Amino acid sequence: MVNDAFHETTAAFAENNKEEPNVDAQRFNAILDAANQPIYDGCREGHSKLSLASRMMTMKADNNLSENCMDSWAELIKEYLPADNVSAENYYEIQMLVASLGLPSEIIDVCVDYGRNVGFTGSRDISLLKEGRECHINICGPKQLKQALDIFLQPLIHELKHLWYEGVQTFNSSRKQNFNMQAALMWTISDFPAYGMLSGWTTHRRLSCPYCMDRTEAFQLKYGRKPWLFDCHRRFLPLHHPYRKIKKLFRKNKVVYVSPPTYVSGNDLFEQIDYYGAQETCKCGGNYHTPANMPEGYGADHNWHKKSIFWELPYWKDLLLRHNLDMMYIENKLFR
């Protein structure tokens, strides 16, 4: 897909033109060197000064530890290791070690409704070190964390746009050459509840299927009145498949003649979201989940509760598949 959009990306490398790694590649090599520096001579493989600092930063974020507590832990660890160890002596040294890696840092405000409808008063700042990015995240309440997933994804979307439009200088270690790498996000992989948060289509109630949408064959149970998706799969079989006419193994006395729902293109989905008035999380606020704030027709004609941030990607509407379900993860949760 990227090659179709940018034909110049297929240009061949010059055979004998070897180059020095670019600045980012040099920084990456420095990270590798730091990761390979043992804490002390003879320590277990993989136990480096960098890995210890990273794990301590993760512990601080996961447990909301104070700087004084981190100083005490660093002092204790250094005291109990052999005398020639190179572990950090305090939290400031840990910070400096992590900062020297050149990790990007930014502040993300998760309170999308500007502090209204908060479950408790007050706010706090959490410093996270996750997957190579240091983020200082201001939150107002636990409810906002789940509702503001798109806010957390903003740095990712920004980088994906940069990868699509400009690309990044990358070093090809086998050819010893630098080149401009451009890339695209093909799809997301998640379980079914996360599918709803990523796509913007609520994955519960009668219209829970993001593929069938308002053309669903789901029905309500007679007494419990709960939506039921049983026997909605036979419509996807070939028109002359014998299972379509079986009346006993599925719903009693039911024969399926209907065809599967037609594929809805990305352009049509985008127009549908705009037609029903679904908005981005930053516009609809953190309390978008309440019925009064849902787009008109929600639950009856559609299940759009927001416009997913992924629609900001210029190629998102052109993808044939935008979201995948992780069946191994779902089966593990369902049958364990």
TrEMBL record:
InterPro entries: Transposase_21. It comes from the Eukaryota. Pfam families: Transposase_21. This is Uncharacterized protein LOC104709502. It comes from Camelina sativa (False flax). The gene is LOC104709502.
